[in-house]
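Quick one, probably user error.
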C-alpha cells in the first residue's frame, strides 16, 4: 500500500527535525542531563513538528540502549513504538475524545507501571479541545503525577488552555519553518524519490505552505499524482488554485485603472477555473507589500522584471491607497474564510478598492440641506486626514458622548440574543447596496463594523479603531435615514470602539441577572438635529471650514 510522503519522511529522531533548532537543543540537553520533566506543552502552527517531536521524545525516554539522544531501534520498546504497538505510549486526539470520562480513565490508569520502558507517555493532541470538566479532571494528575508518567500536550491554540494547566507544564513554542529550510527538505525528498521538479516550483510550494512542513510535503505528493512529467510552476498554480506574479500584477493594474468590467471578468474566470480566491487575495497583499518595500528601498529586489512591475503600480496609485487596499483585503480574507461565497467577498473588496481611486465616491449623492455639516466631517475622515477632536465643538462632543451612553444603556436593557442573530442576517443584506451611489459610502461604513448588541430598536456596532467609531457617530443622521428607509422601522444605532466594548461587555455579563437594576431604559429627549447643533453649524459652516483648512492646510487632501 502506498504511504504518503509526509508519513514516510516524518522525523525519526531529533537530528531529523527541521526548523526547530532551539527546541531540539533544549530537549537534547534535558535528556543528556537527565532533567526530563513530567509535563510538556508543545504549541505552534500546524505541520511544524509538535506531534513528531512528542513521539520521538516518547521513544527516547524508553529506549533500553540509548546512545546520547539516538535510539537503538532494536530493543523491545523501540520496535514496538515503530510498529505503533507500544502500550506505554498512549496517543489521544482531544478533538474526538474531549469528555471528562476519557480523562478520568487516564487518571485511573496512570498508577500502572510501564510494560517495557521507564515511562508511560501520554500524548494529547489538540488539547485545547478538552471540556472545562476534562481540564479539571486532568489538573490534579498534572500537579502530582507518578514518577513513571510523562504528559505531552500539543495544541495550535494555547490561549484556550486554562492558566492552571499552563503553569504546570514546560512550554515549547514551535515557530513557522522558513522557506529556505522547507526548500532544502523538499529537494532532499525529491532526490530520494527521483521526482523531477523545477526550482521555481519548489520555491512556490515552500511559500504556499506558510511555514508548515507537512503542508508542503502533502502538496508535493499531490503534484506527483497530477503530472507524470517534470513538475513546473504552472502545475503548482493549477493544483493549488493560485496565479503567477505577472497575473497578480495585471489584476492590480486593472483595479487601480478602474477597469471594473475587465476585473470582474477575470475574477469570474478564476472562479470557473476553481482558483483559490482567498489565496489570491493573500497574494495581492504580498504584491502590494512588495510595492511599498520597493518605494522604501528598491535595492532590496534584485530581479529587474519585479522592479518594473512594482514601479508601474506605484505610477498609477500612492502609498495611502495601497495601505487602505491592504486593510480592505485583510478584512475580506477574514470574512471569506467564514463565508461559502468567497467570490462575492472578493468582488466586494475590489469595489471598495476602486472607490478609493474615484473622485467623488466618498460622498453620498442627493444630500438634504440638513446633512451638509455632518457630511463635511465625513469628507475629512474619508480623505484620509487626521482631523483632531478640536474641529468638533465641545457642545457637540458632549452631546454625542451623552447620546452614546444612553443608547448603549437602552440597547443592553432590552438585549435579546435571538433578536440580535436574526437581525445580523438583515445587515448582511446591505451588501447589495454597495453598488448604489446613493448608499455605497454609508453602507460600506456600516458593514465595516460588527453588530454586537440589539435591544428592540437600539443597535450597538463595534469598530476596530476609535476613528471609525467617531466617524460612525458623526454620521448618525445619514445612517439612521438609510437604515430606517431600508428596514422600515425607527432604528437607533450607536458605535463604540473595540477597546471600549470589552469593559462594557464584561460589566453586562457580571450584571446579567440584575439587568433591569443596572440598565434602566430611558427615552431620548433630544433629536439628532439638536445633538449635532445643526442650526449653528449651518450659520457658521463656511467660517468653520475655512478655519479647518487653515489649521490643516498641510495635511488635508481634497479629492
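Nope, works fine. Designed sequence:
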Amino acid at each position: 500500500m502506498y504511504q504518503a510522503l509526509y508519513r514516510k519522511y516524518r522525523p525519526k529522531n531529533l537530528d531529523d527535525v527541521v526548523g526547530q533548532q532551539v527546541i531540539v537543543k533544549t530537549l537534547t540537553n534535558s535528556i543528556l542531563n537527565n532533567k526530563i520533566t513530567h509535563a510538556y506543552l508543545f504549541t505552534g502552527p500546524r505541520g511544524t513538528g509538535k506531534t513528531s517531536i512528542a513521539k520521538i521524545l516518547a521513544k527516547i525516554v524508553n529506549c533500553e540502549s540509548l546512545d546520547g539522544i539516538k535510539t537503538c531501534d532494536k530493543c523491545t520498546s523501540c520496535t514496538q513504538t515503530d510498529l505503533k504497538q507500544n502500550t506505554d505510549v498512549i496517543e489521544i486526539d482531544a478533538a474526538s475524545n474531549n469528555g471528562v470520562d476519557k480523562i478520568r480513565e487516564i487518571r485511573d490508569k496512570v498508577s500502572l507501571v510501564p510494560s517495557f520502558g521507564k515511562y508511560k507517555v501520554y500524548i494529547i493532541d489538540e488539547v485545547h479541545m478538552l471540556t472545562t470538566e476534562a481540564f479539571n479532571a486532568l489538573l490534579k494528575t498534572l500537579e502530582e503525577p507518578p514518577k513513571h508518567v510523562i504528559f505531552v500536550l500539543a495544541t495550535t491554540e494555547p490561549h484556550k488552555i486554562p492558566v492552571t494547566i499552563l503553569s504546570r507544564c514546560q512550554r515549547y513554542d514551535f515557530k513557522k519553518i522558513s522557506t529556505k529550510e522547507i526548500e532544502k527538505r523538499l529537494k532532499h525528498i525529491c532526490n530520494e524519490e527521483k521526482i523531477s521538479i523545477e526550482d521555481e516550483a519548489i520555491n512556490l510550494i515552500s511559500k504556499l505552505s506558510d511555514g508548515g512542513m507537512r503542508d508542503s510535503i502533502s502538496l508535493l505528493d499531490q503534484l506527483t499524482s497530477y503530472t507524470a512529467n517534470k513538475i513546473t510552476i504552472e502545475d503548482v498554480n493549477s493544483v493549488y488554485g493560485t496565479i503567477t506574479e505577472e497575473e497578480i500584477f495585471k489584476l492590480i493594474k486593472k483595479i487601480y485603472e478602474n477597469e471594473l468590467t475587465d476585473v470582474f471578468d477575470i475574477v469570474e474566470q478564476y472562479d470557473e477555473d476553481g482558483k483559490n480566491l482567498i489565496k489570491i487575495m493573500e497574494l495581492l497583499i504580498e504584491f502590494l507589500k512588495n510595492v511599498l518595500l520597493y518605494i522604501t528601498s528598491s535595492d532590496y529586489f534584485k530581479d529587474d522584471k519585479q522592479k518594473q512591475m512594482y514601479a508601474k503600480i506605484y505610477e498609477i496609485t500612492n502609498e495611502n491607497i495601497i495601505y487602505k487596499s491592504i486593510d480592505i483585503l485583510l478584512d475580506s480574507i477574514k470574512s471569506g474564510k467564514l463565508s461559502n461565497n468567497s467570490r462575492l467577498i472578493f468582488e466586494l473588496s475590489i469595489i471598495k478598492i476602486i472607490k478609493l481611486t474615484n473622485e467623488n465616491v466618498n460622498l453620498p449623492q442627493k444630500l438634504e440641506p440638513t446633512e451638509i455639516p455632518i457630511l463635511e466631517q465625513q469628507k475629512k475622515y474619508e480623505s484620509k486626514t487626521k482631523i483632531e477632536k478640536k474641529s468638533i465643538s465641545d457642545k457637540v462632543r458632549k452631546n454625542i458622548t451623552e447620546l452614546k451612553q444612553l443608547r448603549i444603556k437602552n440597547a443592553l436593557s432590552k438585549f435579546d440574543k435571538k433578536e440580535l442573530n436574526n437581525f445580523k442576517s438583515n445587515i448582511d443584506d446591505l451588501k447589495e447596496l454597495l453598488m448604489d451611489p446613493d448608499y455605497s459610502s454609508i453602507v460600506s461604513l456600516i458593514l465595516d463594523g460588527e453588530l454586537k448588541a440589539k435591544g428592540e430598536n437600539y443597535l450597538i456596532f463595534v469598530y476596530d479603531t476609535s476613528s471609525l467609531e467617531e466617524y460612525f457617530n458623526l454620521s448618525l443622521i445619514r445612517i439612521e435615514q438609510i437604515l430606517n428607509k431600508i428596514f422600515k422601522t425607527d432604528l437607533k444605532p450607536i458605535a463604540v470602539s473595540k477597546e471600549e466594548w470589552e469593559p462594557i461587555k464584561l460589566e453586562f455579563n457580571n450584571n446579567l441577572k440584575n439587568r433591569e437594576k443596572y440598565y434602566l431604559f430611558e427615552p431620548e429627549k433630544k433629536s439628532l438635529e439638536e445633538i449635532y447643533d445643526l442650526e449653528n453649524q449651518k450659520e457658521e459652516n463656511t467660517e468653520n471650514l475655512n478655519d479647518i483648512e487653515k489649521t490643516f492646510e498641510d495635511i488635508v487632501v481634497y479629492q
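Residues 183 and 203 are 6 Å apart (CA to CA).
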